[in-house]
Structures are given as structure tokens and as C-alpha cells.
Design a protein that fits this description.
The protein contains 8 helices and 6 strands. It is an alpha+beta fold. A 6-stranded mixed β-sheet has the order 1-5-6-4-3-2. Helix 3 runs parallel beside helix 6. The radius of gyration is 17 Å and the shape is globular. About 30% of the residues are buried. It holds the Pfam family DUF7469.
Amino acid sequence: MFILKRQDVEISSVQHPKRDQQILILHYQGQTFRLISVFNASQEEEAKAFWRDLTDNRGKACVLLEEPERYSVWGKVRIEQLASEGAIAGDATASFFTQAGLLILQALYIDIEDLLGSRQAGLFQKDITEVLRQWRFPQAESPEAINYLLTMDPVTALQLPPWQEHHLNTLMQELHRLGKAYFGNATFAERALEALQDMSAGDRGQFLQWLGQSPVGKLWQ
């Protein structure tokens, strides 16, 4: 569809019908869109490639929003859809999606510590803290919160952070970027995905299906 500037649109939020959180909504010429993924200012090509893939190859109705500090991709949605069970199921905030993201995060952290040493693991912890702070991940605002996320058991935890689909897209994108930066190649990805064996087969399968169809899926193949 369109590449838009901030002055072209209005952005508001609506209450998630089942969770204590807000859903960002972009308004443009009477149409409404919800946030799919966010890219930083240096990722213009990645953002445009993702947007073109969704619109040209997958037939999705999406807009790309250009702002000085970021690029974001939004998918068309009707507000009334958000209240339906189906729309929320596609919110990617089912707990096992967050569970999978945390397992991969922890696996990469442990891999760096085992293969590169504690100093590199400490630097990675600082890097991922900055990533989650920059993109405003819920319940990841402080070094103490990050330390908890790196050491908790996502499989047995009674409560997980209320991350949305765009958080998961950003997490997987940034984990792959950091993994390549630390290891110099992408061989870490296969090892990190092995951590999903701790999940049930059904949950693991749904997450991998989502990942394969996500904008960062090609990175993790």
C-alpha cells in the first residue's frame, strides 16, 4: 500500500479486550492498522523489504510509516475485529510465544558465556538490556528485570511478560543481529532454536510456524 510520514497519520490506542495492555492503532484516511514490526533508523532497507514482501508477495494490506528515529510496518485491521477471539489469537501474545522468545534469548546468552566467556556474556546482557529498553518491552525496563528474564524458567513460570507480536518480531530480529555480531556468523541460530525442545510439541510447532511466516523468519532458517 503506502509509505507514510508521521504527519499523514494519527496514532491512538485501544484497550486489549483480555489483557491489561493497550494496542496501538494507526489511523489513515478512515482506515485502521495495527503495529506488526518496528525497525530502527539504520534499518531502512530491511523495513522496506519486509513491507514489500508482505504487500507484493503475501497480498497483505500494510503501510510503512517513516519517522526520523524508526520505521514501522502496520497491517490493516478493523477495530471491531480486535474484540473477536480470532483477532486476538493472532496477536502472538499467547504465553507460549513469549515462552519461546525467552528460551531462545536464554540459549543465546548461555551459548555466548560457554563459548566466548563471562566477559562477552556480560556485554551481551548490556546489549540486550539496551535493545529491550529502546523498544519499550513491558517488564524489561531495568537491568534487574533483564537479569530475571535471563535466569527464570519460562516453561514453569506462572506469569510471563505481556509481549505483543511486534515485540516478538523485534526480539527475534535483534537476537539474530547480536548473535551474528558476537559469533561472526549465523551458526548460533540452530543451537538457540534447540532450546525450544523444552516446550510441548504443539506449542513448539505453532511458534516455529509463526516464525517461518514472520518478517525475520528467513534469518532463522
